[in-house]
Every structure is written in structure tokens, then in C-alpha cells.
Design a protein that fits this description.
Length: about 500
């Protein structure tokens, strides 16, 4: 038998060193692969901002609007000027005021009934974001949490710009508070996606913007992404177009974001970084007079989003996605309610969202919209905020009623018209569906005329100008001499009717 060649001790030691080096190299390579494993969101989503306090109000919950924009970002929650730690909509409505005066809770519920998803945006350009003046972190924590809980959202947007972006103390306070909120919600098996919305230039994020991201990452915030406002550049590159500026801004943001995550010890590959980027153009006329985001620009941006699988695309705003009317004098002055360019209604939404079928959140809608009650279950006066509809009652324009567990508002004077009559066209019904009766609601006190305040109207009586009567609980005043003219008909022909409804 032939005896095998023996290894000397030095050769054996050298072999072990080589094998160890190979193994260590393979280990490093494997860890690099794991660190760079794509976290890309495979289903990008489109969600325009909706300005809650803009006038005229945008009815995002109506069927035609909701069918176009399945995702929306409601804006902006800011610090109340008199109570800094109290969240308010645009420093105009507290959460409770928005519910009572704008019927916002019901409108959101209706939007979710139609399959819609919402996120809430904090901050914006015009007011102070909560962290600016609410300096006690426990109070700031409760302020954020109260909004998230009230609207049952698991996605928020922090729109930090202008002087808000330059306040370093507020930035740190905000980041620490959001990180704690995320951690606490995770411990409760809940998620909170946090988007940071920042201004951008063609050469990328400003230093204040990159500092904001660094602060968030250093505080432990798990950012869903950074949404850059591709608008109001001020000065475009020489011979450059808005399309080129947008492309440059997004490419440079991609480069910067990779560096910022590397500096934070989080290594993402190129696809993963694109999956953490969002873009928000200002449709039509921008605040900068020479910048106009056209329908062609929308097509190009949508293509860029799809090609790079960027996670999010928004726009400012859904309120503006319609052509200005002839009475709007100068379209180069930005309007809150029209785009300033020639377009069909929802043209920008249709172009920007093409091919982007993702949702802001699947869980929010599931946890916040109560199952539709069986219409055969009688409406309960004790749990209905408004009077239950009756075929015999007369309803004036603006009157709200409850029918089959939903709230409707009268568009004009009506009697006997079934609120949920399935008409094909909206002009065929005097009723506009607002949204469902919300859990825990109770009757809202309705001002009434005390019995005997005015006499009941009679078809045989003669009334002089200024006479006041009551019909079906509604008070009316005569404009001139009349006999036999029913006050109830005044809403159908207000000019020819001798009667006008008056407030109690």
C-alpha cells in the first residue's frame, strides 16, 4: 500500500490561514448581500394632497372625486396659535371643530367606505408645525398620538419647510418624539409609516434638508421615505426645462439619500433607495411665475416614477386639479382651487397616477370604517345626530337628516323625495350623501321655535308683509300681502314666493 504525502506543520498552518481568509471573505460578502437586500416597495402609490381649510372646500369624499383619487394626504395639522400643543387644521379648526363645522370625520368615513385610504400631513409652509412651539416632549407626543388615534391612520407625512426646517431644536424634539411613538406603537403590534417631505433643488436637497434626515435617522426614526417637493425651483438650469430639473432633483436626492443612510450605518442598494423616495410637483402654475407644470410634464414624471419604481408620487393639490374659470383674471397668480392651465377636470390626477396602483395603507381602512348596517335595521333617534327622514316633512336647503344609517344634506327644498333613491344623475335627487352615522353619535341639538311663538300657517288666512308663521316646524316671514300661497314652496321659487324662511 502506497502511503500518502505528509503535510509539514508550517504547510498545515498556512493552509488553515488561507481557508480562514476565504471563509471570512465569504462571510463579509454574504453580510454585504444581506445588508443590500432590496427593501423596494413593489407597488408605488399616488396620493394628492387635499387642503382641508381652502375655500371653496374640496369634497374629496364625493363619488366622482373618490373614484379618481383612491389615496389622499389630508393637510395640514399645525400648532394652534393660542394653545401650541393643541393640533389644529391650518390654525383654523381644532380636531373637534373640524368634525362639527366641516363634518370631516363623516367625510373621511365616507371616503373609506368607497375604498379610499388617507394619510395625515403635519406642517406646511404657512403655519408652525407642532414641534416648533410645543416644547415639552410628553405634550408633543400626546399631540401627535391624538391625531393618529382620532383619524385611525398608520401613515403620517411631516412637511417641514421654510423657517420650520431651520429650527434645529424643534427638529431634534420632533425626531425623538416620533421615534418614541413608533417604538410604542410597534410594541402594541401597530405600525406607523413616517414620510419626511422636504424642499429640493435640481442639485438636490439643501443642507437643512439633509440635516433633517440625519436627525431623524440618528434618533432612531424608521423613515418610510423622503418626499421631495419638485416645485418652485426659482431658477432652472441654463437652457433647462422643468422636466430636466425634476429628473436632476430626484437623481441627486437618490445620491444624497444613499450617503445619509450609509453614514447612519444602514447600507441600501440603489433599488432600495428609490423605494424610499417620493416626489410632489405643484400642478399647473407654480408660485414661481415662470414655472408651469404642464400635462406633458406630468406624463414624463409618471414615466420616471414607474421606470425607477419610486415609492410615492403626490401633487399639490387635488383642490387645484381643474381649469380656472373665465372669471379668474390672472392665471399666473396661483389659485387654491384651479391649476391655471387648460385641462379637463382631474387631468393631472389621471396622468400622474397611471400605472401606480398601490395604497397608502390597507390596515387603516379595515380598522376605521364600521361595517355598513343592514338598511332594514331601523334608524335609532337616540344614536342619530340628525332627525330621521320622514316623507311628510318639509326640508330646506342645507338641512341634514339620517336615513338608513347615513347622513344626507338637502341641496334644495324637498318633501317626499327618498334620500337613497338610486338615481342615475345627481341632479335627479335633492339629497347629497355626506357619510355614515359614526359610532357613539348622539342627537345634535337643533334650534326650534317655541310653541306659540308664531301662528301656524293657514291656507285661508290673509297675511300682510312682515307676518310670521310656522309650517312643519319651520318659521317663515311674508314679503308682501298673501293668501293661499304655501310657505313650503318658497325654496322652489324664492323670487316669486311671498314667503322667505327665517332663522328661529
Amino acid at each position: 500500500m502506497h502511503e500518502g504525502k505528509r503535510l509539514s506543520i508550517p504547510r498545515l498552518f498556512l493552509g488553515l490561514l488561507i481557508l480562514g481568509a476565504i471563509s471570512y471573505g465569504a462571510f463579509l460578502g454574504w453580510n454585504k448581500i444581506k445588508a443590500e437586500k432590496p427593501t423596494i416597495q413593489s407597488n408605488p402609490w399616488f396620493a394628492p394632497y387635499v387642503d382641508i381649510t381652502a375655500t371653496p372646500s374640496f369634497s374629496f369624499e364625493q363619488t366622482d372625486n373618490a373614484s379618481i383619487n383612491k389615496n389622499i394626504v389630508l393637510s395640514f395639522i399645525v400648532s394652534d396659535s393660542t394653545n401650541p400643543c393643541t393640533p389644529s387644521w391650518g390654525n383654523a379648526y381644532t380636531i373637534n371643530d373640524a368634525n362639527s363645522k366641516l363634518d370631516l370625520d363623516r367625510r373621511i368615513a365616507r371616503f373609506r367606505q368607497l375604498g379610499g385610504n388617507i394619510a395625515i400631513s403635519f406642517g406646511g409652509q404657512l403655519n408652525d408645525e407642532l414641534a416648533i412651539n410645543c416644547t415639552k416632549e410628553s405634550d408633543l407626543y400626546n399631540a401627535y398620538k391624538s391625531v393618529i388615534a382620532h383619524y385611525s391612520v398608520d401613515t403620517i407625512d411631516l412637511d417641514i419647510e421654510g423657517s420650520n426646517l431651520q429650527n434645529k431644536d424643534a427638529m431634534k424634539r420632533r425626531a425623538d418624539t416620533i421615534a418614541k411613538l413608533q417604538k410604542d406603537m410597534k410594541n402594541q403590534n401597530k405600525s406607523l409609516a413616517v414620510w419626511l417631505t422636504l424642499p429640493v433643488a435640481p442639485n438636490g436637497l439643501t443642507e437643512d434638508g439633509t440635516d433633517a434626515i440625519t436627525t431623524m435617522l440618528n434618533s432612531g426614526v424608521d423613515l418610510a421615505g423622503v418626499n421631495v417637493m419638485t416645485m418652485d425651483y426659482g431658477t432652472l438650469p441654463a437652457n433647462g426645462s422643468l422636466q430636466e430639473a425634476n429628473t436632476d432633483a430626484l437623481n441627486n436626492t437618490h445620491r444624497q439619500l444613499g450617503i445619509l443612510y450609509d453614514n447612519a450605518g444602514i447600507h441600501l442598494n440603489s433599488a432600495s433607495i428609490w423605494g424610499k423616495i417620493g416626489a410632489t410637483p405643484m400642478i399647473g402654475q407654480n408660485d414661481t411665475e415662470d414655472e408651469v407644470f404642464t400635462l406633458d410634464d406630468a406624463k414624463v414624471l409618471n414615466t420616471f416614477i414607474e421606470q425607477n419604481q419610486i415609492a410615492r408620487l403626490s401633487m399639490w393639490s387635488a383642490n387645484r386639479d381643474i381649469e380656472c374659470g373665465e372669471n379668474y383674471v390672472n392665471t399666473q397668480i396661483v389659485s387654491d382651487s384651479c391649476s391655471g392651465v387648460k385641462e379637463d377636470k382631474f387631468a393631472f390626477s389621471n396622468l400622474l397616477q397611471a400605472g401606480l396602483s398601490g395604497k397608502i395603507s390597507d390596515s387603516a381602512a379595515k380598522t376605521t370604517v364600521a361595517d355598513q348596517k343592514d338598511i332594514e335595521t331601523p334608524d335609532d333617534p337616540a344614536t342619530s345626530p340628525y332627525q330621521i327622514w320622514s316623507a311628510d316633512a318639509t326640508y330646506l336647503e342645507g338641512t341634514k337628516i339620517v336615513w338608513h344609517h347615513n347622513v344626507y344634506v338637502a341641496k334644495w327644498w324637498t318633501q317626499g323625495d327618498l334620500p337613497d333613491n338610486p338615481v342615475l344623475q345627481s341632479f335627479q335627487t335633492p339629497w347629497q350623501l355626506v357619510g355614515p352615522v359614526l359610532p357613539g353619535e348622539t342627537p345634535i341639538p337643533v334650534p326650534t321655535v317655541a310653541p306659540g311663538t308664531y301662528p301656524q300657517w293657514s291656507g285661508t288666512a290673509i297675511y300682510e308683509a312682515g307676518s310670521k308663521v310656522i309650517l312643519n316646524g319651520v318659521p317663515y316671514q311674508a314679503k308682501w300681502w298673501t293668501q293661499g300661497d304655501s310657505p313650503a314652496a318658497s325654496r322652489e321659487n324664492p323670487d316669486s314666493s311671498p314667503w322667505v324662511a327665517i332663522n328661529p
